Amino acid sequence: MKTETTVSAREEAGEQVFEGLGVSSGIIVGPAHLRDSGEIQVLEYRLPQAKLDDEVVRFQDAVEKARRQVGKLKSKAESYHGAAAEELGYLLDAHLQMLKSNSLLGAVERRMRGEMLNAEAAVMAEIGEISKNFAEMDDSYLRARAQEVREVGLRIVRNLTKTEYGGFEHLAPGSIVIAEEITPADTALMDPKRIGGFATDLGGAEGHTAIMARSLGLPAVLGVTGLFAGIKTGDRVLVDGSNGRVIVNPTDKRLSDYKLRRKAIEQESRSLALLRDVDATTRDGRNVSLQANLELPRDLVQAVASGAQGVGLLRTEFMFMNREDLPDEEEQYESLRTIVEGMDGQTVTIRTLDVGGEKLTSSLGGHMGSALNPALGLRAIRLSLKEISLLETQLSAILRAGAHGPVRILLPMISNVGEVKEVKKVLTSVARKLTARGVDIADPLPPLGAMIEIPGAALAADALAQVVDFFAIGTNDLTMYTLAIDRSEEQVAHLYNPLHPAVLRLIQFSVEAALRARIPVSVCGEMAGDPKYTALLLGLGVRDLSMSATGLPRVKKRILKIDLRAASHHAMAVMDQHDSGRIAALLDDFNEGY
Ligand code: PEP
Ligand code: MG
User: Fold this and answer.
1) What's the whole-model pTM score?
2) What pLDDT sits at residue 60?
3) I want to staple 202 with a disulfide (CB 3.0 to 4.6 A). Which of 181, 243, 342, 546 is the partner?
4) What CATH code would you report for 11-38+166-269?
5) Whose CA is nearest to atom 1 of ligand 1?
6) By alpha-carbon position, which residue is closest to atom 8 of ligand 1?
7) How would you classify residue 217: left for phi > 0, otherwise alpha for psi between -120 and 50, otherwise beta?
8) Architecture category of domain 274-593 in CATH
C-alpha cells in the first residue's frame, strides 16, 4: 500500500501531472505497475551458531543500504518546495529514524540470535508481529505507523534478497513500470513488446538506464520526485518521454490531445524510415558514416533496419548482467558471432568489458570490492588488467568471432599509453594460444582502438594516437569526468552539459590528434545521436558517428541539410566562446538556419 503523498505534482481536474527528465521520447498510456509493491516470498531457515555473526553482518549491511536509499530520496525531496514535498520529507525522516533506532533493528537481531533464524525471515516475522499489534489499535495515527514499519522492513528484505533481479514477464501487456530506481540491468530485462514504458524517482539523463531506454525505444521519464509515493498499481498513467511528464489518471481531454501528438510522431517515424537506404551526405557532397551502438543483441534488428553502416560500439556488459556467474569463452563467442554474422560484412566494434561506476553487475561483485567513488575506481580496463583471465577470455571470444566478419577491438576508460601496451601483449599471447589450438581467428588481428572518455586521455591524445589504430570519443564519460558531474545523478542533471567549452576543447583536441596521426576517429557518446549537435561535431572534423539505432534516422535527416563548409566556420565561432549558454544559442541559430 502507498501513502497519499505527492511532490512536484499538479492536480488538474482529477489528474496529477508530475515533471521529470524526459530521457527517451515517445508517448504511452497504460496501467501502472509499481515495482517492489508486491508481497515478497522469503525462505526461512535455521543457522548454526558459528554462522550467526556473519548473518547479523549481512542484515546490518542491508540496513545500511536502506539508509543510503532513503537518504538519497530525502535529499531529492528537499530540493523541492511546497507542502507535499514537506510531507514526503517527514515520511522519509520517519523511515530514516526507524533505520537508526533500536526498536525494530534490535528486535530483529534478538530474534535472529534467539531463534537462530536467517535475516530475511526474522525481518518478516518482526514486521508481521508489529503490524498485527498496531492494526488492533483504534488510533488511526498508530495504524499508519504500522504501515511505515512494514515499508521499512520490506525495503530491508528487498536488499537482503536482491529482489531487483526479478523480471517483468508476469506484467500485463502495455504496463508502465514505476519504481524508485531502475538499474541498467533491470532495463535489460524489459521486453518492449510487453512493457509500455517506465518512470522513476531517481536517475539522470545520461546514465545507462536512460541510454538503454532509448535503444529499446521505450518512452521513459526519470528523476520524478514523489512519483512512487503518489501512484498506485493499476492507476492509468501516461508517460510523455519527449517532454518529461508523467500524468496519473489523465482526463479524456488530455488523452485525446496526446492521441493527436502520438499520431504525428508515428507519421514522422514512417517518413524517417524512408531514409534507410539514403546515403548520409552533406549538401556539399561529403559522406558521413553513421553506425549503431548496441546495448543488447536484440538491438541488432533495429540497427539493420536503420541502415547503420556497421556497429560503432558494442557494449559487452549485457553478457555479464542479471547473473551470478561469469560467461565463459564459448558463450561470449556465440553471442558475438551472432552479432558479427547479423551485420553481414559490416564492421562490428566490440568494446571490452566496461563495468564499474553505475554499471555494476552481480557476477563481478566479488572482483570489484566496494569503492567509495566507484566511477573513479576499478572500472573498465582497470578491472580487465587486474583480472587478466577476464580479459583473456574476452579477447579470445572476440578474435574467434572475428573469423566470421570484420571486427575492431575497443578499450574503455584508457588513461595512458601503458594500458594499451599491456593489452597488446595479452592480445598477442591469446592469438598465439588460439592458433596453437588450431582455432580459426581474425586474420590479420583486428584494429585496436581506445575510448577517449577521460580528460587525461584527451589531453594525451597525441601520444595515444601513436599506439592505437583508432579513437572512439565517449562524450558521456568525457563530460562527466571533465565537469565532475555524475551522469546518472538526477540532482546535478541540470549541470551536465557537453556544450561546456572545456568538453568541446577536449573533443576538438582529440579529433585533431587523430587527424594528425591519420587514424580514424568517431564519436559514440550520446552527443552523436542528438541532431542538435550534428553540425557542431561535423564542423569539428568528425566524419564517423555511432549512436542508438533508434536515433540514427533523425541524425541522417539533419546531415542531409548541412553545408559542411558553413558548419566548419560555425564550429570555429563556437570554439571562440567561453559561455555554454552562448554556445547553445549560437548552435540553435545555426540549426534553425540550415
Ligand atoms: C561514453 O562514455 O560516452 C560511452 C560511449 O561509453 P558508455 O556510455 O558506455 O560509458
Ligand atoms: Mg563511457
Assistant:
1) 0.79
2) 93
3) 181
4) 3.50.30.10
5) 474
6) 476
7) left
8) Alpha-Beta Barrel (3.20)
